[in-house]
Every structure is written in C-alpha cells, then in structure tokens.
Specification:
One of its GO terms (cellular component) is membrane. The chain has seven helices and no strands. The chain is an all-alpha fold and about 140 residues long. It has one domain (about 5-140). Helix 5 runs antiparallel to helix 7.
Length: about 140
Amino acid sequence: MISWKRITRSPFSLFYKTKVFLVAALLILQDDKRAYKLLLPLYAFIHVPFLHLNIHEDVWGQQGAFNDLLFRSSVLTITGSLCGVLGCAIMMLKIPECWFPGKLDVWGHSHQWWHVLTILGPLLCMASGLDLLSYRLEQVPCA
C-alpha cells in the first residue's frame, strides 16, 4: 500500500504541483475574453491515466519493468504538459519578436513556435498513454 503522505509531500510532487498551479492560474486569469477556457477540461482529461497510475503505483521508489514504464510515461506526460505551457507563454509574451524586432517576420516568430509546441505537447501525452495501453494489452492477462 502506498502512503498518501509520501505521495503528496515528496519534494518532486510539491514542486511540480506548485509550478503547474501557478503557471495555469496566471495564464487562465490573464485574459477573460478568450474562448480556449472551454477546452481546459478536455486538456485536463489527458492527464487522468497519468494521475491514476501515479496515485496507485510507486513510480519513484521501486525497480522493475512496470515501474520503468510508469517512469517513462510520467516523464512523457510532464514534458508534454510543459510544452503546452511553454507554447502558450511564448505566444502571449511574443518572446522572439521582443528580442529581435523586425527580423523574425517570416521564420521563427512566436506563432510558429506556439504551433510546434502545442502540437508536440499533446503528442507526447498521447505517446505516454499508448505506452501504458500497450503494456496493459500485452502484459496483463485479464485485459
């Protein structure tokens, strides 16, 4: 059995939860007129398998094929989430254009980076889910 104190009070868990909450809260509260708020529950649904397995399994403390797969899946999901947040931040802050005004009008502007990162993020989350699904279909006898 996994201790809830160990999951919720580990340094990695607290750091990850704090950073994700702060970035998400700042991005959501910044603009009230955007229609993307309707899609936030859909994006949050991507993380349900990741959260479920991390609650019920000890990813960080044990060794074995299943825990290696869970660790890889966790890294893919966290990286995908960070890609989405980074893409949104780059688009809102217009990062390359503010450093090099007028030089990135055709290639390399924030809108292109936003497209790359917001496509890469969900693809990484999907790869994580496919890894978990393939493990379930191949290894678990009652699936």
